[in-house]
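ok trying this again, last paste got cut off
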Amino acid sequence: MNDRESDRPQLVAIDVDGTLARSDGSLSKKTCETIAKVRSENIKIVIATGRPLIVAFDCVEKLGGVDFVVCSNGAMTVELPSEEILEDIYLPLELPESLVKSLRAKIPGVAFAFEFQRGVKAQYGFAERLPSGVPIGEPIDDVLDLDPRPVRKILTWHDDYELSTFGQMIIEAVGNNVEISSSGLDFFEFGTIGVNKATALEKLTKQLKIDSEKTWAFGDEQNDIEMLEWAGRGYAMSNAEPSVKKAADFIAPSNDEDGVSVTLESIF
C-alpha cells in the first residue's frame, strides 16, 4: 500500500446546506460525479445533516445514492438503500408541549414546527426559511393542535427578531432541557441533550469497525463543530463562520466552488 492509499479515509461524512449544496441549493454535476467515484473505491459516504429524513432524501436522490444518512442533527441514522433505521432518538413525550407553552409565555409571537418520524408539520412562515425546492407540506395553525405522537426535534423562529437576538432569547428561556443548534438557516432547532452528528457517527463507525482516525468530515455551521472535532480530518468550508473554522483541521474551498468535490479528488 502506497502513502496515498494509506491516507485514504474509510468513511466521509458531509453536511448538506452550505457545504455540499451550493448557495442556491443545487448540487453540481462535478459533485455528484465525485461522490459516485469515491463510493466506487469502497469508501462509505454519509450525509450528515440537520435536515429531517424526508428532506435529506432529496439530496440523496440528486447525488444518485449514498451509504448512510445521519439526519436531524444526529437523532436518526438510516442505512441505504435498504432504508433500515439504525438509530432513532426522540424528545421526552411531555417536553414538546411544555416547552412550546413556556416559550409562548416568555416570547410572544414565537412560531414552531415539529419533526416526527417521517415528516415535519410546521406553522406558517417555515417554508420560506428553507432552501429552494425543499419539500414541505401545507402550513398549520398550531403545532399543539396535532395528534400527540413522539417528536424527534422542535424547530422555532420569530418574524420580529434577528436570528442572533432571538437565539439569545431562547437560550435564556429554555435552560438545559434541550440541545439548541443552528444549521445556518433562519431558525433554531431543539433536540435531545447529548445528541449530535458526532455521537451518531461514533456509533456508526463502531458498528462498521472503522477507526475514527480513518474518517473525514465536511461542514460549515455550528451544528457541525462536534463532527469536525471528532473526525480524523475535519474540513470547514471557506464560507464557514470563524468558530467552525477553528474547530477544523483544514479549510476547504467554499460550497459554491464545489469545495467538497475538489478536496475529495485528492483521494485519487
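PB: full thing came through this time. The first helix runs from residue 3 to 6.
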